[in-house]
Amino acid sequence: MSSRRWQPIAAISRRPLGQTGAVQLVTLDDIRAAAELIRPYIVRTPLVPAGWADDERPLWIKPESLQQIGAFKVRGAFNAIANLDESVRTRGVVAYSSGNHAQAVAYAAAIYGVPAHIVMPRETPDIKVAATRSHGAEVVLCGAGEREKVAAQLVEQTGGILVPPFDHRDIIAGQGTIGLEIAEDLPDVATVLVPWGGGGLACGIATALREAAPQARILAAEVSTAAPYAASLAAGAPATVISAPSFVDGIGGPTVFADMFAHATELGIGSRVASVDEVGAAVRLLVERAKTVAEGAGATPVACALADRGNGTAQPKGPVVCVVSGGVIDLPKLVALLSGPDR
């Protein structure tokens, strides 16, 4: 495989995907190629009907929590590492992440038999640090706001290649394979709600559905304690927000980067925001009714979909898909959520 798309990542910089405002930064062909490449390593997750929420817009759940690492990130990680020339890949990989991307890169590196160094903030949930180490990766803990700097040092020290969490063509194409699966299983899908973290998942799915199911509207689901994409749409430009801590980790970073904002707005990705309480209620509902464990980020699309129904927000009629992006959650946190304020 050619490593041409990886050559610019010699150092850790917020490298643009292309010219800001460029169209179709990732193509449907990229996503189809990714689907073939990662097929042996990922679970083709089903669409599960949520009969408990039926109305004129039937609700479906796509549980990416069923992936080997418990989250969708494995798709992009495998596509990125598989696209490296073997001579480059054997030098090892470096990643920075608060959790699921870390585990995905560690797992993919283990399958390919290459060393992995993963930078994680000290406040990362223990379950995610332990899971990353369980795949044989060397985990380097760092202070808040230091992930990229420490990763840059590791790239320099180890000669490894950086596998960024969202802002790379191969990562976005890998995540976009979810969109292909949705279109194959539910061709008349009307709305797809996707957690917004860095934007790679939403942009990948929107790119796939733009051609595979062009009638579908893609909505970025965020939590009210930190909703930078919603703020960016309101401002008409990439925005930075002040984020408040909550159990909803994995999404809610303070900034939307210019290249991802350009990509998302070109694809027409809209926005929905749920409260922390609504996300907590969605976590409980998914366990009770869908028998699915979701972390806060994974439950946010469900929270947004149900909030829309409750407040009468106008949406196209037809099937709604909520991408439950992951289920990696500390057991004590899950128990506390299941106990809930109304229990």
Can I get a quick summary?
With 343 residues, this protein is an alpha/beta fold.
Describe this structure in words.
The chain has 343 residues and is α/β, with parallel strands linked by helices. The chain has two domains: 28-72 and 168-339, 3-Layer(aba) Sandwich (Rossmann fold); 74-162, Rossmann fold (3-Layer(aba) Sandwich). The chain is built from 13 helices and ten strands. It has helices at 28-38, 73-82, 86-89, 100-112, 126-134, 147-158, 169-185, 200-212, 228-235, 258-266, 276-289, 296-311, 331-339; strands spanning 48-49, 59-63, 93-96, 116-121, 138-142, 161-162, 191-195, 217-223, 270-274, 320-324. A six-stranded mixed β-sheet has the order 1-2-10-7-8-9, with helices on both faces. A four-stranded parallel β-sheet has the order 5-4-3-6, sandwiched between helices. Helix 4 (100-112) links the parallel strand 3 and strand 4. Helix 2 (73-82) crosses helix 4, helix 2 packs across helix 7 (169-185) and helix 4 (100-112) packs parallel to helix 5. The longest helix is centred in the middle third of the chain and has 17 residues, at 169-185. The N and C termini lie far apart (54 Å).
